[in-house]
Amino acid sequence: MAALEKPARKLEAQPLYARVKGALVERLISGQWKPGAMLPSEFAIAAELGVSQGTVRKSLDEMTAQGLLVRRQGKGTFVAEAADTEILFRFYRLTRDEDEGRTATRFPDSRYLAQFQNTANEEERRIFNLPHSAKVWRIDRTRHDGAQTLLWERITLPCTLFEGLSETTELPNNVYRFYAKNFGHIVSHVNEKLKAVALREDIAPHLGLEKGTPVLEVDRRAIALDGQTIEWRVSLCRSDVQHYRNVLR
Amino acid sequence: MAALEKPARKLEAQPLYARVKGALVERLISGQWKPGAMLPSEFAIAAELGVSQGTVRKSLDEMTAQGLLVRRQGKGTFVAEAADTEILFRFYRLTRDEDEGRTATRFPDSRYLAQFQNTANEEERRIFNLPHSAKVWRIDRTRHDGAQTLLWERITLPCTLFEGLSETTELPNNVYRFYAKNFGHIVSHVNEKLKAVALREDIAPHLGLEKGTPVLEVDRRAIALDGQTIEWRVSLCRSDVQHYRNVLR
DNA sequence: CAGTGGTCTAGACCACACA
DNA sequence: GTGTGGTCTAGACCACTGG
């Protein structure tokens, strides 16, 4: 890749470090730099793009703050793998009531109830911006801590974005890492919508609670680096033994 | 204030910009720089502390990212007032269902039900780390959008931290700004714990719902810059017309 | 040891606000 | 114009990693 092009007029240009960052994010989106890969050194990137090392550093620092990169002194800069405990729990906010205070230390395992392709309904088409008669995967599962069921959820994925998924592939614990590794979709952020709802009759047996019990409904959309919604998930969470924790800064 | 002291050994020292930041945060905590005040210029701070302007900039950038400061090109650097819409909504996560997508544009008004001093119970003493027989303020109120009640909440404040509050002072819409301006407590972050619960009988009339209806319970602790918990708030939120939104990055 | 990221400095120039 | 923050560069030195 050659040096960055100069913008026509200085006035309407983004700062140089922002354009450098854009060029680097492009390489993540395109898959040129895959999760876990080591980036060239700051000086190498600077020389390649024709800017100073300090400018490259500012771009890398921002990307690190966003969680796209991991920097290790003395070793290098790497594409984030979403592998560390911290990143694993980045999107997992439920905590057992008795674990209050510390970060969740247990990660529940999954039990699969159903996994099949369907024609997308209107809501799914709207969420994923799909044409008529497009197909989606629907995956129903429960999550447990030991013998206790903590939540039921349905994960919806557009088939076009997940070619090669089959009815027997089990999602691993860290699904977002799985999406990145196998399908090249890097999640940049997720939007969640929380409500308290009365437990539906068809879900009640799965959670071992009476129909009508208040449960926490979490409606989540995962957004990829390119802005596309790649996953829709609705979770119904027992609220008597766990809570959703959040820190606002 | 004189130049920063050199640490005994370089090895165990924090980076210079971190110590600069610490020194500046001290001035916020001590009230030397009050909300809304303009800070000296980068060069002035640098000269005073005996470091370079770039080092001061790095400290100021971090504090800006934390929301402690607001920087305006051409004007100066100011202590954040929690006055802008964005900051006003930083801690307000409830959105009317029909407003989905955009940031909340309406901020509900309040109706006060009760406001009185009490001896702290065991839970309150634990939360605020108070001695026996310490006193707390308890403020009960509802919040509305037009004729519709959206939530009931109880705010608990330790009397020692809020000297001068009376039974007739109404909290303004932006309470955290009020705390900063009148009592010098700058909120650095809040911890929230969410659950779905069945509506209690004594609260039901306030929300205009049946006893037992699922409502969203938000348990919030506000933490000041010095690490002290300064406010405990439990909100019971109608979940049929609004939701709690969250973005995880 | 060489190579990496982390910190710090000094100085230049630009864009914006306001008198 | 002057003073502010915003960007960019060049170069120095430190701390960490691994051969």
Automatic annotation (TrEMBL), chains A, B:
Fetch the Pfam families from UniProt. GntR, UTRA
Q: Does the keyword Transcription regulation apply?
A: yes
Give the UniProt keywords, A-Z. DNA-binding, Transcription, Transcription regulation
Domain HTH gntR-type: where? 14-82
InterPro entries from the xrefs?
Answer: Bact_HTH_transcr_reg (IPR050679), Chorismate_lyase_/UTRA_dom_sf (IPR028978), Tscrpt_reg_HTH_GntR (IPR000524), UTRA (IPR011663), WH-like_DNA-bd_sf (IPR036388), WH_DNA-bd_sf (IPR036390)
Note the PROSITE patterns from the entry.
Answer: HTH_GNTR
Mark the transmembrane ranges.
none
Protein name, UniProt field: GntR family transcriptional regulator
Originating species: Pseudahrensia aquimaris
Q: What is the lineage of its organism?
A: Bacteria, Pseudomonadati, Pseudomonadota, Alphaproteobacteria, Hyphomicrobiales
